[in-house]
Model the fold of this input.
Amino acid sequence: MTGDPVQWISTFREELRLLLGDVDRVGINININCDLQNPKGYRPKMRIDARSPSVREGEKQFLVTAVPEDTDRAEEFLHEMRNQGFPFEQYHAPHSFSYFLQGQAYLGTIFLWRDVAKPSISQGTIELIEALEPFVVYILSDVVARYRYADPNMGMLDAIQFMVTDSALSKQEHRVVILQLFGHSYKEMADLLGVTVDGVKHHLKMIHRKTGTRSSTELFAKYFLPRLNLENPEE
Done:
């Protein structure tokens, strides 16, 4: 019944491991940004990670990463695990199962691992996890819904996605506006994007032209206040 993805993953992972007798380790990746209301129209061009090991405990940092159209989410997750030093040599090659709401909106991926010293995962276990697909889609959708309800930041992510679609922002403009909203200076944005400060200013000019706003305050009022259920402050 929790809306905390970390706690949910920990519990569900253990239950799966017990259910699937010849699995030694279970990995789970959840897309908490999945649009449950419009799965057929969900085409994210950016991934927003709301945590980073470089910040102090109790703080959040939003990292913005481009997501290519043909991204294989399972391979992307495995690549991140390699970068973090996961001991792949201790296991057989993992079996991965990705799940999509209504067959289109990416919800998450489950990875099954087997100790290299033991026989590989049986065909019976593979068939069992495949048979559980409708159930897994349901519970992944449920935890995404619980998280989005519990975390007010999700209203901001929804607003960002609407703004990008409504104003037809480019991928680079998308990144610039997110970085600005999360408090980065022109210099910081330029360094993160690999452009000049003048390049950042040009992107912001185009963003305001496309959104019909003149400042970040106007942009926030137009796209974010209505979706965050906030009232305009009195003059």
